[in-house]
Design brief:
Elements: H1 2-28, E1 32-33, E2 44-50, E3 55-60, E4 62-63, E5 66-67, E6 81-88, H2 89-94, H3 103-109, E7 113-122, E8 130-134, H4 136-147, E9 157-158, E10 167-176, H5 182-192, E11 197-198, H6 204-209
Antiparallel strand pairs: 1-11, 2-3, 2-8, 3-6, 4-5, 6-7, 7-10, 9-10
Length: 211
Amino acid sequence: MILRRWLVRLLGGLAGAVLLYWAVASVGMFIPVNSDVAETPDGIEIFLWSNDVHVDVAVPVVHPVKDWRIEGLVTHPDTAYLAFGWGERDFYLRTPTWADFSLVVGVKSLLWQPALMHVVEWPSRRPNAIRLTVSADQYARLVRGIRSGFAPGPVRILPGKGYGRRDNFYEGAGAYSMFMTCNQWTNRRLADAGIRAVLWSPLPEGVMRAR
């Protein structure tokens, strides 16, 4: 009897915590950041792309502000853009889409796990990507934020760990948690660069809604 009451209280507490998390997330995804910042006419093109799990931010391979080729991230000569994402190691490697989701991996990812950087090489803009134009200053700040997602020092690839022929995983910096998810990382990079974002977006919807 005592054990049953304990289990009921535990499950009730967990359910309450989950509901509170989603409630806070729902509010955070509707509070704008940098909402008064307009896009820069004829500015630098960047793109946001979502697969309904992760939101990536894509930037040009070569620009006076940053030439990403010197980082050793470009493996195809026709690559025009690099799409960057940051996320929890096991979740990234084992959950390319929601169809691959498992409860064990999902729960584990909430508990301050090591991170990876995911880099996809685009030969051209993806049709369903959202286009933004930013100033040189915004782009420079965005570049610094993206680069900070890699482990310190030269980028270190995980051989043979990409989803396909045009993407790779690299050792990342920081820890993934329920508070700093892959989507919140992208959202924070935009916010810190002075680009429109939201207060907190653990899910992709908030990042994409801010456009």
